[in-house]
Write a structure and sequence with these properties.
Its EC number is 3.2.2.-. It is an enzyme of class 3 (hydrolase). It comes from Streptomyces siamensis. Keywords: DNA damage, DNA repair, Hydrolase. The protein is an alpha+beta fold. It is 12% helix and 30% strand. It contains four helices and nine strands; from the N terminus they run βααβββββααβββ. Strands 1, 2, 3, 4, 5, 6, 7, 8 and 9 form a nine-stranded antiparallel β-sheet that branches. Strand 2 and strand 3 form a beta hairpin. The radius of gyration is 16 Å and the shape is globular.
Length: 213
């Protein structure tokens, strides 16, 4: 028998925990993106944890800036950043304000609003690729810097909210190095994903960017 995902909203207490507890627990949860054209829902299948001042790979490692300020605020808020001059990526802030940590949403399955996601991701070869990677995920959901700081624990109809969904059993969770992270931060096995899920993005080690000559 197929059991429908739990629609109970995730509360701030869910996010007010260590990032390495929150990250794998986000797998199988439902992210709801409310838009004027209708809702888009995504089942989270892949994430990465970033542990603030203890993590050289984190945007908050060297302290607070205008860019990363949301990471230093209350848990349960959305941190959106712009990267490579063209893409947005979405994170969920975890833990107390004095411990700026966040979980990057790397991939997921669009379970509602597929037609809306397709309009934003016209290059996707199939529906499994709509949110297969953090930039694709943000694009499919229409997430950009305008949503930076959004309270994901807000009321029904807020731009971004989380539902309990169907948590993944621990024996179906895999972990390994984070994708594209260099230096000391590259060694942490803080990428978590659902085993054998076709929407999970491929792992890529960090490749230094060459300067043009």
């Amino acid at each position: 028998m197929i059991v429908a995902p739990d629609r109970t909203p995730l509360t701030r207490d869910f996010f007010d925990r260590p990032v390495l507890d929150v990250a794998p627990d986000l797998l199988g949860r439902i992210l709801v993106r409310s838009t004027p054209d209708g809702p888009i829902e995504l089942r989270i299948t892949e994430v990465e944890a970033y542990d603030g001042p203890n993590d050289p790979g984190s945007h908050a490692y060297r302290g607070r800036t205008a860019r990363n300020g949301v990471m230093f605020g209350p848990p349960g808020h959305v941190y959106v950043y712009f990267t490579y001059g063209m893409w947005f990526c979405m994170n969920l802030v975890c833990g107390p304000g004095d411990r700026p940590s966040a979980v990057l949403l790397r991939a997921g399955e669009i379970t509602e609003g597929v037609d809306l996601a397709r309009k934003r991701r016209i290059s996707a070869r199939n529906d499994k690729e709509l949110a297969k990677g953090p930039a694709r995920l943000a694009t499919a959901l229409g997430v950009d810097r305008a949503l930076d700081g959004t309270d994901a624990c807000g009321p029904e109809g807020s731009p971004l909210t989380l539902r309990a969904g169907t948590p993944v059993h621990s024996d179906q969770v895999r972990n390994g190095p984070r994708t594209g992270v260099s230096g000391d931060g590259g060694v942490h096995p803080w990428r978590f994903w659902i085993a054998n899920d076709p929407t999970v993005s491929p792992y890529r080690a960090h490749t230094p960017r060459r300067r043009s000559t």
